[in-house]
Task: structure prediction
Amino acid sequence: MATYNKFQPFIEYQFEGVMNLQSDTLKVMLTLVAPVATNGVKADLTEIGAGNGYSAGGTQATVSTSAQTTGTYKLVVADVTFTASGGSINDFRYAVFYDDTPSSPADPLISWFDYGATLTITSGNSFTVDFSAVNGVLQAT
Amino acid sequence: MAPPFNPDVLRERFAELTAQRDAILAQSVPLRETRDAAIAAARAERVTADTAILAIEAPLFDIDQERALITRALNGQTSASSIAPNRRV
Result:
């Protein structure tokens, strides 16, 4: 089970109107280098190389619901699947969730998931970043 | 020793601060209004684009969830069958 980690600047971005999680282009990218909680934007990270089914910047996450109930906001997104073809996707350990829409700051980070070990997606196989449909990818109060 | 309380001096100072505040806002408020108008125009344009995007992508969530479900069911081995489509049974 991957562990969830929040990037600290994310909370400031929310209160300063940087992101619209309902309609922005949210993505999941992969990295082998451990993110740090104080990282703020995608450029702070070292993404795996593109190729063999992995696109630079990662894969779009589809938003299901972005709403609050009794004062608690919850964002639910569909699971994101990476499929290797023509070779393996580069090794990774962390899946990073970020917002690809804002330009200032560009590509602000939201959270990351640590799978605890290096993973490889070999050609013809797929890997799913499994987001909870019940609890969502994040909640805020 | 603290100076004696003098309401007239305090009122005079209050008036000075108020004048300073008003002078600052006289400069910044027009800029705020221009900024807010620009944001409102951009937001209106964004809402139009968002609506169109969300309408097109409405089926995407179910597709993504089903792809993930299949990936888990196949333990990640999602490569297409080598059997040609016209020969599948």
Helices of chain B lie at 7-56, 60-73. The CA atoms of residues 54 and 60 of chain B lie 9 Å apart.
